[in-house]
Amino acid sequence: MTTTAVAKGPINWPASIVLTLTPLAALIALPLYAWFADFSTAAWISFAVIFACNGLSITGGYHRLWSHRAYEAHWSVRLFFMLFGAMAIQNSILVWGSKHRTHHRHVDHVDNDPYSINRGFFFAHMGWMLRDSQTCKLDLSNAKDLQEDPIVMFQHNHYVPIVLAMNIGLPLALGWVLGDVWGVFLLAGLLRLVVSHHVTFFINSLCHMWGSRPYTDENTARDNPVLALVTWGEGYHNYHHIFQYDYRNGVKWWQLDPTKWLILALSWVGLTKNLKRSSGFAIQKAQLTMQFKRAEEQIARRQARQADVAALKAKVAHEYEIFTAALQEWAKVKEEEFAQKKAQLQQQWEDAPFRARFRELERRLRQQRRRLRALTA
After folding, report:
1. 179-214, pLDDT tens digit by residue?
2. 60: exposed, middle or buried (C-beta count within 10 Å: 0-12, 13-18, 19+)?
3. In CA terms, which of 21, 97, 108, 311 is 20 to 30 Å from 90?
4. Distance between CA atoms of 9 and 255, rounded to whole angstroms?
């Protein structure tokens, strides 16, 4: 059934011009320049550096800092993210953050999610920006905190001049310093913009279509380590959609997440603080819940072999009893912790006895995940 939101709205000309003309210009200008003049090493290095600055400003700044408040940052870090985030031309922090919060609140809803994957790959990737549909109407009621941030509002109120200065002035100035004005402008200016656009857009499109769902199947978000390589760690999107306030997306130590490493490294020198982390127990719980769902699906598929199914059901039921007992014990420990906090207001939650008990519960869940994997293999 077609709704008002799904119906096509008027063309958004600024976005349409930028998103169509910049790739076209890159396809024409770059081969011609490479044929007649070639690009210097300095131009390629400048492309890589500015591309990284843009990407990390979107992932570390626009996304994890401002949209989700996953940590706090020094004004110098926020200023850097504001400038290089504007250079990525993905709208102001205020607008980007507001629409992203709406996406999380209504993920996959065909009417209310601004870039719902249920309206197709192209729509989620970039089509939603090309028309002013009902879905894309801006409602800043969910961004009151951003409106109180002077750096956010300075960028919002002077967005066009900042964009022009960062996308034209900076590459030309850098090219003049490096002795390759047009080479740097074409690579660090034009090509960098096109690549950074579509790398970011992949999170809204491919990361809702391609990958695994180890933490939740209640939305279409996927974990995709391949996309994490080109999106500065944002590819672990299934994790992010269930633990959105965690400053990490790649929660495992071996998962590639440069944004997480940058935020953590900045905390060592006092430039970031109050880094939010989801508890290990909550993460293990989400993974085990998904494993039990998949075990039930396997049992349903093997109904023809009644003997095997009965044995498997019994083993899964036993594991689920252990899982339920662990959840009850976790709730009991939390209750005891709260009671002690109430009695001693100065005590930190990281008090050693409680920390040891929580870690033991996490260890037991990890062991159970291994047993369940072996059981359903």
Report:
1. 999 999 999 999 999 999 999 999 999 999 999 999
2. buried
3. 108
4. 40
User: Residue 54 and residue 67: Cα distance in Å, rounded?
Assistant: 16
For residue 96, which of 52, 150, 155 has the smallest C-alpha distance? 155
Domain range annotation of the chain: 13-273, 280-376
User: Taking the chain, what is the end-to-end CA distance rounded to the nearest angstrom?
Assistant: 41
Burial of 94 (0-12, 13-18, 19+ CB in 10 A): buried
| Residue type, position 62, single letter | Y
The percentage of the chain sitting over the pLDDT mark of 90, rounded to a whole number, equals 67
Which residue, chain included where needed, has tokens 């970039």?
126
User: Structure tokens of 109?
Assistant: 């809803």
* pLDDT tens-digit series, residues 308-347: 666 666 676 666 677 677 667 766 766 666 666 655 544 4
Encode pLDDT of 154-181 as tens digits: 999 999 999 999 999 999 999 999 999 9
State how far the Cα of 135 lies from the Cα of 326, in Å rounded to an integer: 42
pTM of structure: 0.84
Are 227 and 206 in contact, with CB atoms under 8 Å apart? yes
